Amino acid sequence: MLNKLLYSKRGHGTVVLLFFCVLASILLVDTLIHDRYLVRKNSESTATGLIPARKNIVYPNTFNLANDRQDLLNHYNIYFNESNAQANSDAFNIFRYDGSTSWLHPQLIGGQYHPHNLQVYEYQEINDCAKRRNDISVEISNYIQLDPELVEMVKVMQRQLKTEKAFEELKPFFKDDLRTQLKTGSLTSHWYKFAGSSVWLEKLGVHMVISRVIYSITGSKRKPIMSLAYVQIYDQYWTELKDVELVLPIQNELSETEYSAVKFPKFLPIPFYNDPKYQKKVYYGPEDTRLFLVKNDQGEEEPMIIFNSYHRKVIKNDGVSEKEMTVSFGFYRSMFLSWPFRMQRGKINVDGVSNKKSDSILYNKVVELRREDVPRLKIQKNWTPMISFEDRDEYGHDRYMYFVYRWSKLEILKCNLDNFIEGTSTCVYDYQRKLDSSGDEVGPLRGGTEMLNIRDILHEVPDALQGREMWVGFPRAHIKDCGCGKDMYRPNLAVITKESDKSYKLTQLSSYTSLDIEVSGWTNPKILCASRDPNALISNGISGWTYHNDVDYLTLSLSVADETNHLIHIKNLLNTLLYSTSMMKREARDGFDDSIIDCAISESSKFCKSYGEEMKKLDKTPPPEPDY
After folding, report:
1. What is the pLDDT of residue 437?
2. CA distance 389 to 469
3. Which of 57, 176, 387, 550 is the most exposed place for a label (fewest CB within 10 A)?
4. What are the entry keywords (predicted)?
């Protein structure tokens, strides 16, 4: 049954024989060395073509040019080479990618996994948490931590400050501090890289990872001045390519698309309002960046970023001429979308007014997400993105982006991905459980990863899904003063269902899950549950989820203590949800409320308390404060 529902995305004769084998081997090695192609292959004999230790220039597998090394070098030198020196076969590993389109690899499939239990709450007519609880088990790998390398990252920032106009405006924030920090080895007091999320670019055979980087001038993690978006490229095996150029289709400010060779790693030129004269009690730049794929109007998968950022808007404009004009500004932290492969000229949509210093500069395209007919709130954060396959079936692409605006009371927003008005995407409610819901309180469940449409994983649509849509993801609960420090953050597994009557339901929700990932202290790594600190393990993105031989594999990205990026692989999560829960059952769905949220948060609070008690026994908590 399963394989109908699912599919996976990817003597003398002896002497003579030995002579030809050796000769063939020599010719093969010579070819591999000459072409600088990767010798490492997986068990299916599919070479990625990437060499982590060398500079790679990668053309997509759809590029209309023969995969001949000299032809590629000639093309690169004519169209993309920015230096005076001509690229040659000794300088670069250049090729058109022709490897597997799947991010799965043999080590992931055949790696070691161990059982991990989840307490999932499901809707039942009886208001009893114990009867709503369904204990399920999946398999998880040991977690891996991506290299937190800061030296190379800061050197990248130094280069971009010198060579890219989009970063010149940030120079007053850094002055000569970066050189000093590198010289004294004090980077870890000023720079923090975390909240990584990623997408697999199947035409190039690489993972594109975006991390949130915060910078503190004072050296206090509690008082950062700026947040930035840093992009790194990893191969199929999660080895970073530290010097790579990807040939990408870049859309200019006139919406014209042409290929360009883009160097990584790099900070993205995402436009944001900033003023070097004001560096106290402000926080500039894109915060909580999340990367995911959408299908654009050309039918191609394209990365998109959601984030929130401080920006400025004109709220009052008095006067009859420019010389007599008096402008009043409002300042907000709002939600934005950005496209890493699309550009805009200037940044009036985040500064509020035109500025001759930036009007001619190219930045990544951004649009503000704005609820229709609702005044801007001072702070908007933690919208959870979703894609509708009903829209894809109807329009052939993602015409709208959907967001869980509020988990409690369940509110879903629908925002347009075209026809922007003054750099703004209009968002309307696609669903509100209570039309009279009011107030800005979000509740403890929020943010986390995108909610992945299970049509992204299933090939054939099962009968139980006809007329319905389902999404699975990992929001995270933020619970205050629950027994470990100031706040605790952990992932929660969630399933959202859209019924044929267009109503949305939160049908499954787990309590906190640790995924057996060790959490360090927020200020002091060895001290947990400090009274002023959060205890944070936050789910950031689903890096991939697919099937291989009727087994589903998911890679989840998480961050610990706002300082690190982790990955963990989960095996058979979707299979378990499909066959061990009521997820696929068609039932009367009336009467849904926040009861399973209440159950899951109550159990999560118990987790927090038990965790705090365990850390105290292990002597990992701070000593008691003196009693004066």
Report:
1. 54
2. 8
3. 176
4. Cell wall biogenesis/degradation, Glycosyltransferase, Membrane, Signal-anchor, Transferase, Transmembrane, Transmembrane helix
Measured at the CA of 425, the angle between CA 424 and CA 430, to 5 degrees, comes to: 150
**DSSP letters of 403-451?**
EEEETTTTEEEEEESSS-BTTEEEEEEEEESSTT--SS---SEE--S-B
Which pLDDT score is estimated for 49? 84
Nearest to 465 by CA among 594, 574, 549, 595: 574
Q: What is the dihedral of CA 503, 508, 512, 515, to 10 degrees?
A: -120
Q: What total of structural domains would you count in the chain?
A: 1
Q: What is the pLDDT of residues 523-550, one digit of tens each?
A: 999 999 999 999 999 999 999 999 999 9
Is the confidence at residue 62, as pLDDT, over 50? yes
Pick from 233, 207, 354, 408: nearest CA to 293: 207
Residue 144's alpha-carbon distances to 72, 238, 566, in angstroms, are: 36, 10, 6
* One-character DSSP codes across 341-359: EEEEES-HHHHSS--TTTT
- Locate 426 and state its tokens: 């209009």
* Element at 31 (helix H, strand E): helix 12-35
Q: What is the mean pLDDT of residues 328-341?
A: 96
Query: Rounded to an integer, what distance in angstroms lies between the CA atom of residue 301 and that of residue 202?
Result: 9
User: What six digits make up the tokens of 563?
Assistant: 């300082």
Query: Does residue 78 form part of some domain?
Result: yes
pTM of the model: 0.90
Q: Is the pLDDT of residue 110 over 70?
A: yes
Closest listed residue to residue 69, CA positions, set 79, 57, 81, 80: 57
Cβ of 100: how many Cβ atoms within 10 Å? 18
Does residue 76 sit within a domain? yes
What sign has the CA pseudo-torsion 514, 516, 517, 522? positive
| Sequence-separated (6 or more) residues with CB below 8 Å from residue 21 | none
> Does any domain span residue 89?
yes
Q: Distance (Å, rounded) from C-alpha 435 to C-alpha 488? A: 31
Give the rounded distance of the alpha carbon of 350 from its chain centre.
22
Residue 51 lies in domain: 11-101
